[in-house]
Amino acid sequence: MSRWHITQAIVLLCGALAISACDDVLEGKEDDYEHEDDGCCSGGGGPQGGGSDPDDPDPDDPDPDDPDPDDPDPDDPDLDDSDPPRVEVGQGDLVGSYLNSKVRGFFGIPYAKPPVGALRFLAPQPPDGWSKARDAKSFGPSCIQADGDDVLDDQDEDCLYLNIWAPARTPRTGAPVLVWFHGGDHANGSAAEPASRRGSRYDGTELAQRGLVVVTVNYRLGPLGFLTHKKIAAVEGGTLGNQGLWDQQRALQWVNDNIARFGGDEDNVTIAGQGSGATDVCLHVVSPESRGLFARAIQQSGGCTTYQPTTSDLQGRAQPWLDGLSCDDDSGLLECLQDKSVSELYEDLPSGAFVPSVGGEFLPEQPRHAFDAGEIADVSILLGSNAEEGSLYYDRYPNVTTEDDYHLVIQELFPSIPLKELCEAYPHDRFEDADEPYQRALAYSLGDGRFTCATLDTAIRAREAGANVYLYNFDGPYLDEAGDAEHGAEVPYVFGTIAAPDDDEAELSDRIQSYWSQFVREGDPNDDTDPTWQPLAEGKPYRLNLSSDITVLKQFRDAECTLWRDYYDSEFGN
User: Fold this and answer.
1) 3-state DSSP assignment of residue 142
2) CA neighbours within 13 Å on the CB side: how many for 218?
3) Do residues 552 and 534 lie in contact, with contact meaning Cβ atoms separated by under 8 Å?
């Protein structure tokens, strides 16, 4: 029998006999934290709602940021998987595991019904319950991926699962919650994406050790997650595209309903993501359907105030794909698509057809218009980009080796921007030390246009809408072979999943985790260290430069982003 169970027996006996002398027996036995709910107890301030030690701090003034002044003993039998942690959620009991002496893990938790068969392409439905305790020690499958270099092995249509990392001891007051949406262009990626050191690139262990409850979410991708068609919207349970965003919203609702069982505070939830996941965070900030489900937002290399495709744009892009499947635009369209195999659905996918869309219930108007009207969630926002975002595109244009090649491709990509202005902003001789300077110049222009300046545009509009905004540039010690702070390079610093970090990497990762954790707690990333991270101010788009030497950047690609912001305006006819 565990020490906790022995303590409970004493508590119950003393309560039944009303023996005041038992106080002496119990003194020092009860800690200040609720044991995870194993179906036999509940209540605040300790098991069965019992009193606290007279030497404890005032229970009306607990310190939520330091729930246990003494780390649990790693050999404590209460933290041994022979007596694993259990939590009861709305669907039933979950049995997780202790990841170390400080962190519990509960993985592969269904937050919606499997979106298969008659539910394929429809909005997610609340999950079914279970009668026996459910094993929650391993990740669920990833959602179906588009073909590419990063395709994951374990895929299934039945993929709407989330994972939770929580402190081993449930704090007296609810812990702040971080909900993470992975990137991957809405075509690839997973909440259980492999990493070199742990089971997941998005391993929440380190952040949970800092007092957060961390949640990572799978959501539908590609055509299963973002097919937009009016015939699907017209059926019961249908939606005009954005199935993957509705999945995320359903996960947030599940968190709101259940996260207190894991020690989290449902009123202090931060949504965060990287790349397309950051764009999704931005879209939740805009969507009236997600109001009240989160208190803060973190966007790593992604905004949403450039032109977003409309439902009619995407339905047109998908039409050749529908024609190839012989699914006609008639009353049998949905049934035809539901009868197709996954391999048929994911063959010959058209470019840009399966992404978030504007015009349905989730996004009734362009996000830019909502920001400009101040009609966004009342939340603080931390966002930024990486110094070498364009490295993502470096190998995509191997034939750009001459000035003529450069001019031809850049004009095809951005016909509305005068060639002279693009070449002045990204001259190839600026990259003359690179192996392929024309490729590098093109890649930088694409990185700035899609990520760096697009993120800045959202930051400025969010500040003008009244949000507290904290802007950063990541330029840390480089982890990739090319030596670039490329797209996604900051992620292992945020989660502490760098394989064998050197001293500089470890120090910067510690600082970044401190900033992110503090923002999740309070909506302000500043701690007691210098320099102070100032919120964005009018006419002062200052950003914190996250590098080996953390500094404040007062000017960062001003000329380039002026060019791109003018281009974004032109997409709206301005």
Assistant:
1) strand
2) 32
3) yes
Residues 6+ apart with CB under 8 A from 543: 384, 471, 472, 473, 552, 553, 556
Question: 448 and 430 in contact (C-beta within 8 Å)?
Answer: no
pTM for the whole structure = 0.86
Q: What angle do CA 87, 79, 509 make, to 5 degrees?
A: 90
First to last CA, the chain: 71
Nearest to 281 by CA among 270, 266, 267: 270
Q: Which of 389, 411, 388 is nearest to 400 (CA)?
A: 411
Residue 448: burial class (beta carbons within 10 Å; 0-12, 13-18, 19+): buried
Look up residue 297 and give its DSSP letter: E
Give the Cα separation of 169 and 190 in Å (integer).
28
Q: What value does the CA radius of gyration of the chain take, rounded to a whole number of Å?
A: 25
Backbone φ/ψ region at 505: left (φ over 0), alpha (ψ -120 to 50), beta: alpha
Contacts of 68 (CB under 8 A, 6+ apart): 31, 33, 167, 169, 171
Q: Which residue, among 463, 423, 400, has the nearest Cα to 563 in the 3D structure?
A: 423
Q: What angle do CA 415, 353, 426 make, to 5 degrees?
A: 30
Torsional sign, CA 305, 306, 310, 314: negative
CB of 194 closer than 8 Å to CB of 178: no
Residue 236, CA atoms < 13 Å, CB-side half-sphere = 1
Instruction: State phi, psi for 410 to the nearest 5 degrees.
Output: -70, -30
Total Cβ atoms within 10 A of residue 91: 18
Q: Which two tokens stand for residue 556?
A: 């960062």
Q: Where are the alpha helices (DSSP H) in 346-471?
A: 367-372, 403-413, 419-425, 437-447, 453-464
287-338 pLDDT per residue, tens:
999 999 999 999 999 999 999 999 999 999 999 999 999 997 666 999 999 9
CB atoms within 10 A of CB 210: 21
- State the Cα–Cα distance between residues 324 and 427, nearest whole angstrom: 43
The 8-class DSSP code of residue 350 comes to P
Note the Cα 151 to chain centre separation in Å.
19
Asked if the peptide bond before residue 62 counts as cis, ω within 30 degrees of 0, the response is no
- Phi and psi at residue 470, to the nearest 5°: -120, 120
C-alpha to C-alpha distances, 541 to 93, 136, 224, 470, nearest whole angstrom: 48, 44, 39, 10
> Can you list the alpha helix ranges (DSSP code H) found in 227-301?
230-233, 243-258, 276-286
What's the CA gap between 363 and 367, in Å, rounded?
Answer: 8
Task: Give the helix/strand (H/E) hosting 97.
Answer: strand 97-98
Name which of 294, 453, 298, 274 is nearest 381 in CA terms: 298
Q: Dump pLDDT digits (tens) for 152-195.
A: 778 999 999 999 999 998 888 899 999 999 999 999 999 988 76
